[in-house]
Amino acid sequence: MVSGNALGSSLVNRAVDAVYVVSVKTFTERIAHMQAELGRHGIAFEFMFDHDATDLDPEMVARTFEGDGLGRGAQSLVLKTIAIWRKALERGQARILILEDDALLDERFAERFCVAINAARALPPGWLLFLGGHDTKVPDRFFLAPGPLVELPIATAEGYVCDAEALRRRLAWLAEHRVSLALDHFMRQVDPGLGIRQFWLTRPIVQQGSVVGLFDSALDQHRLKHGRTYNILRNRWNKLQRHTLRGAWVRLKSLFGVLPP
What is the Cα–Cα distance from 53 to 76, expressed in whole angstroms? Predict the structure, then answer.
């Protein structure tokens, strides 16, 4: 665990107890990106460099994972994240923000983040706030939700907030079970059975740099098959059709009574 900047005076640092960035020691471009990206928002954070794919302990891998369906990169991401969860509980942190190292933050990130956290304070313990989803398919009810939160399963893991109770429940599950899925799929599958509720923001505030073309993907095999130009255009098209156009269409149908309010 390595510290990032030390400003710590931002609205974000007052809304959560810690901000963690999952990265790899040799990813110098992404490390510099996160230092600049969080620096411009005045957010203090820590890097998680433990459990890089090249340094995995075979015994830990055997204890944590079931089968050989996950590559070393996906295993590394799971182990890094589990290490963050444990560290947060050891430090007595009530709420933490976890970001991947290609995260891009909305220009009004702090303001919208704090609105979401204030809404989460009213939730029973055991929750996750997903901050991404700009280009992800969502049900009609997403566009009609009053906000700022709408209950939906996490789609990816580029940025999310968990409370301490959610961390405790997952770690208790991990003490008795092994992981067979990538991190986002794991949380999506396990959390409902643990009573951990997952929410989106009605306006996503984090994007993946590897999706918008800033970086090549480190894990996503579909994006790795295509060049950056293709990924940029695909991302823009998905945002347009899945959110901008479809959202306008759903709201229009609701206005005319085609959909329930």
Answer: 5
Is residue 96 within 8 A of residue 161, CB to CB? The reply is yes
**Side chain identity, residue 22:** V
Query: Given a cut of 70, is residue 115 above it in pLDDT?
Result: yes
Q: Give the tokens for residue 235.
A: 């991302």
Rounded Cα distance, 205 and 161, in Å:
12
Q: Quick one: which H or E segment has residue 159?
A: strand 159-163
Name the pTM for this structure: 0.85
Strands 18-22 and 127-130, sheet pairing: unpaired
The SS3 call for residue 150 is: strand
> In the 8-state DSSP scheme, what is residue 124?
P
Selection from 37, 34, 60 nearest residue 47 by Cα? 34
End-to-end CA distance of the chain: 47
Q: Which one, of 101, 97, 123, lies nearest residue 110 by Cα?
A: 97
Q: Which tens digits make up the pLDDT trace of 96-107?
A: 999 999 999 999
User: What CATH class has 2-255?
Assistant: alpha beta
* Nearest CA-CA partner of 114 in 64, 30, 186, 41: 41
